[in-house]
Design brief:
Length: 336
């Protein structure tokens, strides 16, 4: 006769799994985001991973660690989601510069075409050791995530596991059903590909020394002082604007854009947000006097003495995902 299942033991196991799932959420989210290049697809993948893990907990025989088991499920979910031939990219990877600011924008591309941003807090424990936080932020930079999308899924996964999450090659091999030798080989090929792309101009994250530069940027942008704004840009600065393929290069073209088609940015308000390991701002356009509504999530990349990247994601419906308010209303604020 089979022994009866102890309901208290079953409840304890379920409670333990629930705790493990929640404590693993950020790491799983980080893995899935780097694999997929989209915060929203990563959220879907993590949710599916949680459901699959919960439904199959009785099949987990503990021949591997719980961590490996969870990530194996997440990996398989991601692989199913990246079978599409479309690779997410940044506008700068999709062709030469638009060259002039008077370009016709054309129809917006589908969201799935572009690498999408993510809030730092969604994938990073911001209370961890500052050095670990800084390293984690480097691994979610837009350019780094875009570069990952050039790797075949196996190389992408190996590099994320071993380089970003600091797994041993043996742990990655167990998760991926590969030999240690094949994991090391895939890791070496992935490193070579990323090194080549870094030489092509991947940009670094901002750091505390850029605080004044960013404060000056906010003042210049909100005042729409284009002369001052241009003085903060490096000669190799680029502007991009998903969901459009548009990208411009150089301070003169950016100035022409902001004074031409980009004049809609005049009288904007910016709210800072930590996104993709660097400085971000929710940009709000004035809808009526005293009321500003979401327009674009800005990602501002700085290097040395100036701004090198001015990336604008025109998806105002995503502002809540970054903890940004649905509007700025100075009328209600004045009445408080």
């Amino acid at each position: 006769m089979q022994p009866l299942t102890d309901p208290d033991q079953t409840k304890s196991s379920s409670d333990d799994l629930e705790q493990i799932l929640e404590s693993s959420r950020k790491d799983l989210m980080g893995y899935c985001y780097r694999m997929l290049g989209s915060a929203f697809e990563a959220e879907d993948a993590v949710q599916e991973t949680m459901v699959k893990a919960w439904n199959s907990q009785d099949q987990f025989e503990r021949r591997s660690s719980t961590k490996t088991w969870l990530f194996k499920i997440a990996h398989n979910v991601c692989i199913d989601m990246v079978r599409s031939p479309q690779r997410r990219a940044l506008p700068m990877e999709m062709g030469p510069s638009t060259a002039t600011a008077d370009v016709v924008l054309g129809a917006p591309a589908h969201e799935s075409v572009f690498v999408q941003p993510i809030a730092d807090e969604a994938v990073i424990d911001l209370t961890a050791d500052p050095a670990m936080v800084a390293t984690a932020r480097e691994s979610i930079r837009l350019a780094f995530v875009a570069a990952l999308q050039h790797l075949p899924p196996l190389q992408r996964s190996v590099l994320i596991l071993c380089e970003v999450l600091a797994w041993k090659a043996s742990e990655a091999a167990s998760l991926l059903d590969q030999t240690v030798a094949s994991v090391n080989s895939a890791l070496q090929r992935a490193r070579t590909t990323l090194a080549a792309r870094r030489r092509a101009g991947l940009t670094p994250t901002a750091d505390p020394q850029h605080a004044k530069l960013l404060a000056d940027y906010v003042e210049a942008f909100e005042a729409y002082d284009i002369t001052r704004l241009v003085s903060l840009l490096r000669d190799d600065v680029v502007l991009s604007m998903p969901p459009f393929n548009l990208w411009l290069s150089g301070p003169d073209e950016l100035a022409a854009w902001f004074l031409g088609q980009g004049i809609v940015c005049k009288d904007s308000r910016l709210i800072p947000v930590a996104v993709n390991g660097t400085a971000g701002f929710g940009a709000y356009h004035e809808a009526t006097p005293g009321v500003w509504e979401p327009f674009a999530l800005q990602i501002i990349e700085a290097r040395d003495d100036g701004i090198i990247g001015h990336h604008n994601f025109l998806y105002p419906e995503t502002f809540a995902h970054y903890g940004l308010p649905e509007r700025i209303d100075e009328r209600s604020m004045a009445g408080q």
